[in-house]
Amino acid sequence: MITSTSKPEKFLTSFTDGKHEALADAPEAMGGKSAGFKPVEMLEAALSSCINIVLRVAADARGIPLTGATVQVKLNSDNKEESVFEYKIDMQGELTDEQRAGLLRAAAGCPVKKIMGGAVSFKEMA
Question: What pTM, to 2 d.p., does this model score?
Answer without folding.
Answer: 0.92
